[in-house]
Amino acid sequence: ILLDKDGKRKHTRPTFSGQQIFALEKTFEQTKYLAGPERARLAYSLGMTESQVKVWFQNRRTKWRKKHAAEMATAKKKQDSETERLKGASENEEEDDDYNKPLDPNSDDEKITQLLKKHKPGGGGLLLHPTEGEASA
């Protein structure tokens, strides 16, 4: 028995054997809550007190909830980023509507050049009619 500095009994944390933890985990997989008689049977079979089993289950549920909440948050972030990606793709499709329309053969070259600049990196690309300076280069 351990005593604190005032001579009172010091509370010690129980250590459970691997077999006890294994049995507790297996039971927890089947049910997250134990009723009184089930808790008493499990405690007796593992050589533990009912309060130890009760507290172990309380702590294990807290751990399980935290893990479950973290998994849900990760899934939500993944879903949100996918939604943003799809949203961005649909906005680009809207911007590309002008680009994807058939060209009017009677349209002026300036409109075509602007569309090409808008959709080509660096604004370069195909020139239909080179300007005077470009023709001599």
From TrEMBL:
<keyword id="KW-0371">Homeobox</keyword>
<dbReference type="InterPro" id="IPR017970">
    <property type="entry name" value="Homeobox_CS"/>
</dbReference>
<dbReference type="InterPro" id="IPR009057">
    <property type="entry name" value="Homeodomain-like_sf"/>
</dbReference>
<keyword id="KW-0238">DNA-binding</keyword>
<dbReference type="GO" id="GO:0000981">
    <property type="term" value="F:DNA-binding transcription factor activity, RNA polymerase II-specific"/>
</dbReference>
<keyword id="KW-0539">Nucleus</keyword>
<dbReference type="Pfam" id="PF00046">
    <property type="entry name" value="Homeodomain"/>
</dbReference>
<dbReference type="InterPro" id="IPR050394">
    <property type="entry name" value="Homeobox_NK-like"/>
</dbReference>
<dbReference type="GO" id="GO:0030154">
    <property type="term" value="P:cell differentiation"/>
</dbReference>
<dbReference type="GO" id="GO:0000978">
    <property type="term" value="F:RNA polymerase II cis-regulatory region sequence-specific DNA binding"/>
</dbReference>
<dbReference type="InterPro" id="IPR001356">
    <property type="entry name" value="HD"/>
</dbReference>
<feature type="compositionally biased region" description="Basic and acidic residues">
    <location>
        <begin position="77"/>
        <end position="90"/>
    </location>
</feature>
<feature type="region of interest" description="Disordered">
    <location>
        <begin position="67"/>
        <end position="137"/>
    </location>
</feature>
<dbReference type="GO" id="GO:0005634">
    <property type="term" value="C:nucleus"/>
</dbReference>
<feature type="DNA-binding region" description="Homeobox">
    <location>
        <begin position="9"/>
        <end position="68"/>
    </location>
</feature>
<feature type="domain" description="Homeobox">
    <location>
        <begin position="7"/>
        <end position="67"/>
    </location>
</feature>
<protein>
    <submittedName>
        <fullName>NKX61 protein</fullName>
    </submittedName>
</protein>
<dbReference type="InterPro" id="IPR000047">
    <property type="entry name" value="HTH_motif"/>
</dbReference>
<dbReference type="InterPro" id="IPR020479">
    <property type="entry name" value="HD_metazoa"/>
</dbReference>
